[in-house]
Structure formats: structure tokens, C-alpha cells
Amino acid sequence: xxxxxxxxxxxxxxxxxxxxxxxxxxxxxxxxxxxxxxxxxxxxxxxxxxxxxxxxxxxxxxxxxxxxxxxxxxxxxxxxxxxxxxxxxxxxxxxxxxxxxxxxxxxxxxxxxxxxxxxxxxxxxxxxxxxxxxxxxxxxxxxxxxxxxxxxxxxxxxxxxxxxxxxxxxxxxxxxxxxxxxxxxxxxxxxxxxxxxxxxxxxxxxxxxxxxxxxxxxxxxxxxxxxxxxxxxxxxxxxxxxxxxxxxxxxxxxxxxxxxxxxxxxxxxxxxxxxxxxxxxxxxxxxxxxxxxxxxxxxxxxxxxxxxxxxxxxxxxxxxxxxxxxxxxxxxxxxxxxxxxxxxxxxxxxxxxxxxxxxxxxxxxxxxxxxxxxxxxxxxxxxxxxxxxxxxxxxxxxxxxxxxxxxxxxxxxxxxxxxxxxxxxxxxxxxxxxxxxxxxxxxxxxxxxxxxxxxxxxxxxxxxxxxxxxxxxxxxxxxxxxxxxxxxxxxxxxxx
Length: 496
Fold this sequence. Notes:
By secondary structure, the protein is mostly helical. It is 83% helix and 0% strand. It has helices at residues 2-33, 35-49, 58-71, 75-110, 117-147, 151-174, 179-190, 192-204, 225-245, 248-273, 276-285, 287-323, 335-350, 352-361, 364-389, 391-416, 422-446, 455-480, 482-495. The chain is globular. The model has no long low-confidence stretch (mean pLDDT 80).
């Protein structure tokens, strides 16, 4: 459990650093370069994120394949898996070069004419180099460390590079550097992480990347494509559709809200997924313990998600008002869009426990069709809704897709992997809905907490709302889950 604690702690620190960096840099870009440049950067970044399709979901399959040989210290099998994975990623990294070439030719014609072609092309090249290096050098080593429950090493390297970027970027902007120089500097800093991971794995694991094998050591290598494809679509469809059918200003609005809401989702997912190797270990060694642990983990996930995303729903618009103060070239106050996007990301987090069991069991081939359906729902609804509802329609597409997938995963896990009683599942969601309804009723009775003109005023309001929601969540769950509440209190006392 010590490894889990270290993984969780470093994951939280990493995401907090990323959140701070994510808030500071876009704000400076908005104020210095304007909404259109901010929208352009986010659009290019999302298009480049499609490059990670080349990973084809193999990353999660590699991680799952490593659980057993790491548990039994089977070095030969570890070498075979790492050799196969390295060959696969290096071959696919060359596809990256072709994709970037296509992007260099097509994207400047796809986007509006606000920027010169040279301006756009230079940004694409700079932003793509760090992505190439990450996939070519760092990815396989990171997967090995995470599978071996040493994610804290991987996260630690990311923390250092993010902090360096956080220090350097404001200085460069203050000195009047162009956006190209700014992004080139962050690229140079980012290269440090894969270099460190390569050295660390070489020193402590002594992987033989020339290990020969007759049969494929990663049997479901190609079946991970659906899961990863769905993740990429869910992360990038909104920006791509907005870029094609809306304006860069709307891309900028979306990116600012997603910066907050998506950042909170990433923090929670990083914390939850730090338990993924533990799930894999229990699946191999002790299924009964996995059943008991899963039920407790699932309940805890629901409690955390409802509390955190309710707070987000109440606080995100007041925060955006302060964050975009003085930026008048776009309408950043979008309350309905904010609630829908928050709800969509909450559903995305709620499916995490079931997704972790599926990955631990290696059921990639069996579940891949559901991921294609999720992609279709997201794209289809977004394309239909954007013309009439704009940003609201985009958020609605993601929400419907994630709600469907969460329900499907519950059904699949209960039928094939663990014993999940439907009465218990229904009870979980009834309790969640009850907390949400009571929270909104209380908010309506109390009224608005007042306008926030400064970050300190917003922080004071955030503390008040968060304490109120935590108290509400505790009271409701003590009533409906007295036994687990008692278990949690006992667990906390033991940890002390």
C-alpha cells in the first residue's frame, strides 16, 4: 500500500502543478496575444493530440500484459513485452512524421485567414517535436514504471518539467517573446522527461531490447485500438468540430472552461488510476479481495465525484468571470454550457472503476464495440447540435456519449467480471441524485453568495460552498451507507 500512497500523492501534486500551469499560461496568452491566438494554439494542440491515435491503445494493453511477469519477477517475459512494445511504438512514430506533413499542408487552409501560413506552420512544427520525442523515447518506459507500481517516478519527472515551464513562461512573456519562442522553450524543457525515464529504466531494470520471441508477447496489442480511439475522440471531437464549424473565439471559450473542468477531471482520474496496478495485482492473485475492494472503491469514487463536480458547477462561472476580466473580444460567461460540460466530465469519471476492472482483466477485444458506439454518439450529436446550440450542443454530445458508456460498463462488468447487484447500483445513483437536488435547493434558498471581483473573494466563497457540500455528502451517506462510513472512519484512525 506504500506504493499506492506514493503514486497517489505524486499524482495529486502533478495535477495540481498542471492546473496552476494551465491557469497561469492561458491567462497570460489571452492578455498578451488575444483570444484568437489562444484559440489557435488550443486547436493545433488538439489536432496534434490526434497523433496519439498512433499509440492505438497499445499502451494500456502493454501495461496489462506486464502485471503478471512483474508480479512473478519473470525477467525474460518482461524483456519480450518491452521489446515488442518498443518496436511497435518506434514503427508508429514514423507515421507521426507523415501526419505532421499532412497537417502542415492542410491545416493552414482549413483554418480561417486571421494568421499567415508561416505563422501557423511554425507553431505546428514546434508543438509536434515534443510529441514525437515523448512517443519515441518516453512512453514505453513510463508504462513499465506505472505497471510496476512506481508511477511516482514517472509523475515526479513530469512535476519537475512542469515547474520549470511554470517558472520560465511568465518571464519570457514579460520580456515580449513571440508565441513561437515561448512554445519552443517549453518544448526544450519537456525533452528532459523522456531522457530521465530512459536513464532510470536502463539503470534499474536492465531491459534487454533484443530479446527474441516466437509468439507475440502482447496478444491483444491490436484490440486496444477501440478504447484508445474513444478516449482520443472524446478529448478532441469538441475542439475539432468547433474549429470546422465555429470560430476560434468559441474554441478559446471552450478551452478556458475545459481548462478548469477538464483539469479537475484529470486530477481525479490520476488519483483513481493510481490504483490500477493494484487492481491488476488483485485480479491475478486474489479475486475475492478484488470484489470487496471494488465495492468500497466504487462507493468512495461516487462520493468524491459528486462533491467535487457539484462544487465545480457552482464555482466555475464566477471563476471564469475573474479569469477573463479585461478580455472583451469574446463572451466567456456561458452558464448552461458550464453545467453540461461539468456533468459530462462527472460521468466520464464515474465509469473509472469499471474501466479499471476491464483493463485489469485484459478484456479489450470483448469491449471494443462499445467504444465505437461512444465515438459515434459523440460525433453525431455534436454535428447536429452545433449549428443551433453552439457550445451547448457540443457539451450535450459528450454528455450523452459518457452517460451511455457508463451504463454499458456497469452492465458488462456485472455480467462478465464481478458480482454487481443492480439494486446496489441503482441505490448509488439515487443517493447521488438526492445529494445534487438537496444541494441546488439549499443554494436557491441561500441565494447567490455575492459577486466575486477578486481571487480572494472567490476563494472564500469556494471554501464556504465546498464545506457545505462535503457536510451534505457526509450526512446523506451516513444515513444510506452507515456500515461503510463506519469502515472509512476506522480506516482513517488506523492510518493515523
